[in-house]
Fold this sequence. Notes:
Blueprint: H1 2-16, E1 24-25, E2 31-32, H2 39-65, E3 80-87, E4 90-97, H3 102-113, E5 121-123, E6 143-148, H4 152-175, H5 183-189, E7 213-218, E8 223-229, E9 234-238, E10 243-247, E11 253-259, E12 262-271, E13 279-286, H6 290-298
Parallel strand pairs: 3-6
Antiparallel strand pairs: 1-2, 3-4, 5-6, 7-8, 7-13, 8-9, 9-10, 11-12, 12-13
Amino acid sequence: MAARDESQEVTMDAEVKPNDTEPSCDDNGEKVDSEIPSPVETAVASASVAAVEEEQEGNSTTQDSSITNGEDAEGGEREMVDLKIIWNKIKYDLKIPLDSTGAKLKEAIHSLTGLPPAMQKVMYKGLLPEDKTLREIKVTNGAKVMVVGSTMNDVLAVNTPKEVIQQEVKAEENKKEPLCSQKQHRKVLDKGKPDDIMPAVKGTKERLPTVPLSGMYNKSGGKVRLTFKLEQDQLWIGTKERTEKVPMGSIKNVVTETIEGHDGYHMMAFQLGPTEASQYWVYWVPTQFVDAIKDTVLGKW
């Protein structure tokens, strides 16, 4: 009896176990094929998904590699320089290629300030040349560049009288005897060349020095020094007694003449008012700085 009971139990278990391969039926009793995928189909599908993901990842890598980091298309980054542009007591930060010319710098300043290049007087160790690169004039990173300039209306109001005065002064000079021969100047020139005057370099034109021009005489025969405060657009005329701070825009004209017998030095007058009586005379100005002084004071508009 025990053997029979075990046989029946096995038979019952076999009947309860579902048949995975037997097709299912719908509500009407008809057979319906099973949609459960086989292990082989599952493996194929997984491989396809992996291939698609790998392809997408490859496309992403290709797109990332096409992104540039500011380098030129021809290869290599352009060397840049950071400048501090100062105009109307306002500071601007400017980053520009070191191989840009002075003219290109003026265009960049125009974009920053709205001041047209033709109206700009750009100063870096004197008047900035337009035809040379920043590298050539040895502009360094973080350098301060001073810009002087006004609107067209202001320039016309200031410069028109100045141009008339310059023409009148030139006409008067042509009528007169050489300045060196005039009595008022001879009494200073006859003292001779000062011992501590800066050396003259004939045949060259240099930028304004970074230190004051010193060792020269004024009309009374006293020692005088000239300091060009470009950031303030001022000329400081210093003597033993005091220092006059003269706005460059108020100087109507600059008169110069080579000292007879000393062609390395000039006598120079800054006209501070409408007449010759307002001229401030300085003697024994080194010839290499004469053009830089005139350009700095009067500008090139």
